[in-house]
Design goal:
heterodimer, A: 448 residues, alpha/beta, 3 domains, 16 helices, B: 501 residues, alpha+beta, Phosphorylase Kinase, domain 1, five-stranded antiparallel beta sheet, two-stranded antiparallel ribbon, 15 helices, 11 strands, 40% helix, 11% strand, globular
């Protein structure tokens, strides 16, 4: 991963120069807002800083300083490498050093090079007292926290390249969003199977889909078949692809023979599939040529092609809201219900998919397709009526905020003793009733 | 005049069963409302239409403000909140609805009823056009009207300190006949509060010493707490700060969602994002914006974005090229995009700014060239008809002249034009089947007046007048134009509707 460039002069740094001096001179004065902000910012920065002490610095002279830095969450690197953010050196930077000297490298990598003096001044400003003071008992208590932290993220001086048994290392393409201050566990992570070419990957990526449809979704049937056959038969998905193109071309032809008419949003391909398509119009795969061109690894649709209707489940479903903040549900409940990344245990990938299935059941609701015009064609191609699909999901699993309970069947849950008891208690609804009362309709004024 | 909403009960046996059960179990309901049909079902509620049986007994003066969005005042929407919802959540929704009861851009709450754990919220019924009938029309005037109405609604909410949290086409009811739109479903909405500990509150970590080492894995049994933030909303519409679990979210999350809707219009794709979870959502957003911007955005909210997905590029995709790709358009370098499209894409790139701090507010977005119409050399189709009175002031006439230039919609490829035509038919089919409605001509008038006033405001702003005196002049001019138009063409009152239940 590319190193995040260290900005030469940041606002925080400017403050540090100003603030650092100020604190030294006016120690004991009332803290200003700016100073508080400066401290807050730098404490955050310290939590993610990595120090390297240059050769020539006596270990005994910095022992106490190190203790304070450690308490602030900083780490130390015994050997210089590019993970270092701060180099502490008593040599003057910038003065004709040999190529390859650490100070030269540090300035190339835009690391901070501080003298021990500066570090002491800085810490004095940040801590509000001299870093040479002994750690008091309260801080020693923090040290135990620190040890716990070490247990968590490993010793601060360990070799970062060494593999750890308690880690899961990604094997395929992944996304990981993590907290660099190491306070929180990773926000989310997900991994996908490796693919022979990027375009075969299962992760969301642009797919050539007909106009009107989501550009991230392979048409169901196509994608999954392709995936399952990927490693066994190379020809089967090609054949499938050809069939598909043929299908699309057929739709195009049939459509172009008809006068343009309002699209009925209905699936017509079913009976048109049987027609033999001309293969000449099959578009060739277009490969992205330059950075500005969107990637098209799969055949693009001919421009005149009529939009194939979306897959059945997407056609009659509406994405509904999810992931609301529950009033006082515990985080455990939340992560289970909302299909978050779980507790970070083991195979969250598989876990997530189950949660996601639940979530999907919850968030995909059938809705009737609007009738645009009086249907000219017989509704023979109409999908099964929405009521029948409604029956399918009438089990309605979910979460009851009042009983703090997950349920499999909504109708069953509302008849349980616990729920009925809650519903019967008017006290639970006192605050709500107050607002309902304020919304009572006002009687009509007598007409003048 | 015929009623615009059918006052007969649905024929669907499932719906009838559901409705009768509700009528039988809810205290006194049949005396107050005659339920007609089920018109929506969400995660937390379902919505029915109903005839408001006791309407004449109540004070309905609020309706005068809503004439443009109120198609049939005797029909209301009854929102039945699932009994598994916490009373506090319902109270929150009602409180927000009560706060937002003074705008034509938010569905008006009429009253609320409770019987046991069952809560019904009675709302203004808004007739609207299904988004799936319009998102592919390619009609830039429609897109403009839609976005203006949506952003006006958001401006009103945000001015009142409310974050909607669930902006999406199903929650913004836009009517192509009246070109008016109304925000609904404040079930996830919240009042904005200052605070939160996210690093973005103090500038983020974009320029500090973060030096993320590649993790390439995660601790298996991680006892550290997870980051928590309100993620309420609909997948595919969540802003990056929601995905990165920022706990200092602002009204800008609604602006992002509005941007996603504009993206659907311009790409003609619906849904556009189709993620199953937040991880996939981030991958989708990153596919467009690229690794660098996502990394920057993550750092703003105090986290590191790390990925090895090969289809996520460093710098992402430029909107114009990427939208052409979505629309299956291959453009030669000489072929230019219409100025309307260019302006719309510019607005899109501003609404979909991963950095919420530079993302415009609803008010700022409404000043964008695309939405004010300044971007467009108007075709005859969109030009305003000549004013009724010969005594029109100069600024209207000069504006008319400026607008009578040619051609956004001219495209060289006849194929594409034909395709667009077919798409437009969908929208026009709805329009043509409706008889003439006087409320529309009333709306047309209002539209003309507002358009004229907008030009006046522009002119005055150019002259460097201060806000207060501009407002005064505008108010005076609005008064003058309104009296003039109403004397010319008095609209028929819309509340004289026959009831046939």
């Amino acid at each position: 991963m590319p190193r995040v460039p260290l900005q030469p002069v940041t606002e925080a740094e400017t403050n540090s120069r100003r603030g650092g001096g100020k604190a030294e001179e006016e120690n004991g004065q009332v803290e200003t807002d700016a100073m508080r902000k400066w401290r807050r910012d730098w404490r955050r920065i310290m939590a993610i800083s990595v120090f390297y002490f240059d050769v020539g610095i006596e270990a005994s002279s910095v022992d106490k300083i190190k203790g304070h830095l450690q308490l602030l969450g900083a780490r130390f690197q015994a050997f210089f490498d590019n993970s270092v953010t701060h180099v502490i050196s008593n040599r003057t930077p910038g003065k004709e050093h040999a190529r390859g000297d650490i100070l030269v490298k540090a300035s190339q990598l835009r690391m901070k090079v501080w003298s021990v003096d500066k570090l002491v001044k800085f810490l004095t400003a940040l801590l509000g007292h001299s870093p040479s003071r002994e750690l008091d008992s309260a801080q020693c208590a923090k040290l135990s926290q620190l040890l716990r932290q070490e247990k968590l993220v490993g010793p601060s001086d360990r070799d970062p390249t060494a593999r750890r048994d308690d880690y899961y290392y990604f094997k395929g393409p992944y996304i990981l969003v993590w907290d660099p201050s190491h306070y929180n566990r990773p926000l989310l992570h997900k991994e996908w199977d490796r693919a022979a070419t990027p375009y075969e990957g299962d992760w969301p990526q642009f797919r050539a889909t007909p106009i009107g449809m989501c550009p991230f979704v392979v048409e169901p049937g196509v994608g999954h078949k392709k995936r399952s056959h990927r490693n066994t038969t190379d020809t089967s998905h090609k054949r499938r692809a050809l069939e598909l193109r043929a299908e699309k071309a057929a739709v195009t032809i049939v459509k172009s023979q008809q006068p343009p008419q309002p699209e009925p949003l209905m699936h017509k391909a079913a009976d048109e599939k049987s027609q033999t398509p001309p293969d000449t119009e099959t578009p060739t795969p277009q490969i992205a040529k330059d950075e500005n061109e969107p990637p098209v690894g799969v055949p693009a649709q001919p421009e005149t092609s009529i939009q194939r209707p979306p897959a059945a489940f997407r056609k009659y479903c509406e994405i509904t809201a999810s992931g609301m903040q529950r009033y006082s549900a515990t985080s455990a409940v939340k992560s289970t219900v909302l299909g978050e990344t779980g507790n970070g245990l083991g195979a969250t990938h598989a876990l997530a998919s189950r949660e996601v299935n639940n979530l999907q059941r919850k968030v995909l609701q059938p809705i009737p397709i609007p009738q645009l015009v009086a249907p000219t064609k017989a509704p023979a191609t109409m999908p099964p009526s929405t009521s029948s699909s409604r029956v399918k999901i009438s089990k309605k699993p979910g979460f009851c905020e009042n009983c703090y309970e997950r349920f499999e069947n909504f109708d069953d849950h509302v008849l349980t003793k616990k729920h009925k008891k809650y519903a019967a208690n008017a006290q639970n609804f006192a605050a709500l009733d107050a607002i309902i009362d304020s919304l009572a309709r006002q009687p009509k004024l007598p007409s003048p | 005049m015929a009623t615009m909403v059918d006052h007969n009960r649905s024929q669907d046996p499932e719906v009838v069963k559901e409705i009768t059960t509700l009528e039988e179990t809810f205290f006194n309901l049949p005396e107050k409302f005659f339920l007609l049909d089920k018109i929506g079902e969400g995660t937390f509620s379902c919505v029915y239409t109903a005839v408001d049986l006791l309407r004449d007994h109540f004070d309905n003066r609020w309706e005068s403000k809503m004439t443009e969005t109120l198609s049939d005042p005797s029909v209301v929407a009854v929102k039945r909140i699932h009994v598994t919802s916490a009373p506090l959540r319902i109270a929150n929704e009602l409180e927000i609805l009560a706060t937002l009861s003074d705008s034509a851009h938010v569905a008006r709450v009429i009253t609320a009823l409770r019987d046991g754990d069952q809560v019904l919220v009675v709302m203004q019924y808004v007739k609207h056009t299904d988004f799936r009938c319009i998102y592919r029309s390619g009609d830039m005037d429609l897109v403009r009207d839609y976005m203006v109405e949506l952003l006006k609604g958001l401006q009103y909410c945000h001015d009142n300190g409310v974050i909607h949290r669930d902006i999406k086409p199903t929650n913004f009811l836009f009517n192509t006949e009246t070109n008016r739109g109304v925000l609904v479903d404040f079930g996830l909405a919240e009042f904005w509060t200052a605070g939160g500990t996210c690093p973005c509150t103090s500038g983020g970590w974009e320029a500090t010493y973060v030096n993320p080492q590649v993790q390439a894995g995660y601790r298996k049994d991680d006892p550290r707490p997870g980051r928590r933030a309100n993620r309420a909303g609909t997948r595919g519409f969540r802003a990056p700060e929601v995905l990165f679990k920022c706990n200092a979210q602002t009204t800008k999350i609604d602006i992002w969602a509005a941007g996603v809707i504009l993206l659907m219009f311009l790409s003609k794709r619906f849904p556009f994002f189709n993620s199953l979870d937040d991880s996939e959502a981030i991958v989708e957003v990153a596919t467009i914006f690229g690794r660098v911007k996502m990394q920057k955005c993550a750092l703003l909210h105090g986290c590191v974005f790390e990925t090895t997905i090969p289809t996520i590029r460093e710098s992402g995709h430029a909107f114009p090229q990427f939208l052409d790709w979505c629309n299956h358009i291959r453009r030669t370098p000489e072929e230019m995009m219409g100025s309307d499209e260019t302006a719309a894409i510019d607005l899109l790139s501003k609404l979909l700014d991963p950095d919420f701090r530079t993302r415009p507010s609803a008010r700022d977005a409404l000043r964008h060239d695309f939405l004010t119409g300044r971007s467009r050399p108007l075709t005859t189709k969109t030009a305003l008809p000549a004013p009724h009175s010969p005594s029109t002031t100069g600024y209207i006439q000069s504006n008319q002249a400026a607008k009578r230039t040619e051609g956004v919609y001219e495209r060289k490829q006849t194929e594409r034009a034909a395709a667009a035509e077919a798409d437009k038919l969908i929208a026009s089919a709805i329009k043509s089947e409706r008889p003439h409605d006087p409320s529309i001509s009333a709306h047309e008038q209002a539209r003309k007046i507002e358009s004229a006033l907008f030009d006046l405001r522009d002119k005055l702003e150019d002259e460097g007048l201060d806000e207060a005196s501009i407002e005064r002049q505008i108010a005076a001019e609005r008064q003058r134009l309104t009296t003039k138009y109403t004397s010319l063409n008095r609209p028929v009152p819309t509340n004289q509707l026959e009831v046939d239940y």
